[in-house]
Specification:
Helix 1 packs antiparallel against helix 2. This protein is mainly alpha-helical and 67 residues long. The protein has 3 helices and no strands.
Length: 67
């Protein structure tokens, strides 16, 4: 999860730069969006890893959703 913290830190940095750099605001906001997507990818990866380690839990959760 340290990786996610660093990714979010980069996203925040880009958004802060957008606030203070009006000439390149769109560039910094686009960079922030890239970092945000990386964060979402990291969360999804972590979620898949957790479910792969405990497949019985994901099976029982699927059973509950199907009912």
């Amino acid at each position: 999860m340290n990786r996610l913290v660093e990714i979010r830190r980069q996203e925040h940095f880009c958004r802060e730069r957008a606030l203070h750099d009006s000439e390149r605001k769109s560039f910094w906001l686009a960079e922030a969006e890239v970092w945000e997507q990386r964060a979402l990818d990291e969360i999804a990866f972590h979620f898949r890893e957790c479910n792969a380690e405990n497949p019985s839990h994901s099976i029982s959760a699927q059973s509950l959703n199907a009912a």
